[in-house]
Amino acid sequence: MRLARSLHVLLVVLLAALVTAPTVTAEPPFRLPAQVTDRVGALTSSELTQVERAVDRLYDDRRIKLWVVYVESFDGLGWMTWAQNTMRASDFGDDDALLAVATVDRSMAFQVPSTVSGGSSTRTDDIRRYDIEPALRNDDWAGAAIAAADGLNANAAPSSGGQVSLAPVLAVLAVIGLLVLGLWVWSRRRRARRHAAEVEAAKRVDPTDPAALAKVPLEALDELSQTIVVDVDNAVRTSEGELELAIEEFGPAKTEPFRKAVDDAKAALQQAFTTRQILDDAIPETPLQRRELLTRVIVSAAKADRGLEEQSNAFQQLRDLLINAPSRLDALTQQMVALTARVEPATQRMAGLREQFSPTALESVGDNVDTARERLTYAERTISEGRSLLSRPAPDQNPLIDAIRGAENALGQAKTLLDAVDTAAGDISRAINDLPAEIEDIQAGIDAATTHLRQPTTPKADELAKLRDAAVQAVEDAKTNGAKDPLGTYTRLNKADAELDAILAVIAEKQQEAQKQAKLLEQALFTAQSRVRSVSDFVDTRRGSIGPEARTRLAEATRQLEAAEAKKTSNVAEAIAHANGAAALAAQAQQLANNDVSYARQAYGSQYGGRGGGSDLGSVIGGIIIGNVLRGGFGGSWGGGYGGSWGGGGRPGRPTSYGGASRSSTRSYRGGGGRF
């Protein structure tokens, strides 16, 4: 009996609890009546006022309407579907954003149009992740709404409406102005230092070499041209004055080379000034035209200056001959005496050579002693004539210069002739002994040159053929005349061998460089092909989630790769550049594609297999499930506007988009939602 009574009491209590237990009221999507709608009493009256003020402040400052709604449940539709249907029912426009909170389901949706977020999902995601969700987790319903409004007010794209306080704006502008001014001063000084360094480097370049000038920056080239025309103009003016004095002192005949150099310099300088005038007139030139004109100015002026410098040195030597004529004549006399003393020993040595070698072997030195005597006799006579001219007035001393130069040349030749006799025995013996080895060495070079010339890609082929033929001729001459004139033959053979070796070395270096470039191209092509292929496979297997940016980069990478393939035989350097460009673009495409897939998983994981994904989500991302999408997609909650944006490879904007990349609407939404 007592047990039955106890069971009866327990049953009554349970029934009372069931009757009095709270029920969760599901709220289907509805048209929002006001910007702040509280269906569950989540806000106190003071909190409601605070939220409304934050919402009003956002509208006043940015002309953005944030709609806040609190319900108990999203009616089992999921946060995204409930939010989108509510926005659709509420006729949301380009400046309307939504914060929907299901307090019992503990789920939320935060949707911000791209026209408000400035096209960036990062800022909107940060507001949701770092401002809204922490407040909701602490049941701070009012704080979440205020954080959403204030976050949009601080981060939204600027609006043309609203009242903006001028004081903060002016302060910010002042700070920006100071920063800009400081940056301008710093960059100006930096440019000035860089320009000065470039000008100094330009001054070390050969100004007569257009190829060297092509590497000089345009501004430095301009300053160099202005400096050089001034310098050369000064040099021409100075040279004209010196020329007048030289004509009076030495006469027109002796100064003819100087006069011609001054005339040539004046003509080149006039051409440079004419070109500078073209640069300085009001008609602008393209950078390429300006560089060509500046190069013309510098080359013309530099060649004029070089001609003046060469003749200036000769002119100085002419004047030195007159000033130092007595001491020069004394020195020449001493040289003549010393060389005369060598004649008799050379005669005896020559007699010994004739006993040792055949006349043909001595052909190159056979008359050296007699010729040396003739040069010494001429030198003695001209030195005597020079001494007789020392007492004449300066204008009549011009023949003295010829006498000194004639004696110098004669004594130099006499010394060379006697030196050859002294070294003839050793030189002839060495030439006879080394000739076979030299012929063998040059023949190896001839064979190598012939092998190179059979190859169509050999660089400097014309020059190589010319030097190869000269070497062949030298070998034939050595075989015919080696015994008659071993010294002369050996000298000619050695010269031909050296020239052929030099061109072969250049060709070997160029071929080595070509091989290096070919290896670099092979590596670049392999890298580009691998990256383009892997990214293409990635896009193909995830086509349902990858948008146009990644595909555009991939298409350009493919084009660059095709260009590299087309150029690999005609221009290796350009082919390498195209291949490297293809690899870089493929890397960018991969990053963009990774982002798109990540956004898709985040946005639609809840509808297709949860956060971890599932077979349906993978099929959507891979573009396999397309029929349902094309018929309205995702349980019909999207209407007909979602179209083929996922199934056909469209991009969902950023983490979420209102209607995806819908063909029926150009408005996309940023933000997100989910449990908190």
TrEMBL record:
It comes from the Bacteria. Gene3D superfamilies: 3.10.310.50. Residues 653-669 have a biased composition (Low complexity). Residues 493-574 form a coiled coil. The chain crosses the membrane at residues 166-186. InterPro entries: TPM_dom. Keywords: Coiled coil, Membrane, Signal, Transmembrane, Transmembrane helix. Residues 1-26 form the signal peptide. Residues 653-676 are annotated as: Disordered. Residues 36-154 form the TPM domain. This is Transmembrane protein. It comes from Mycolicibacterium chitae (Mycobacterium chitae). The lineage of its organism: Bacteria, Bacillati, Actinomycetota, Actinomycetes, Mycobacteriales.
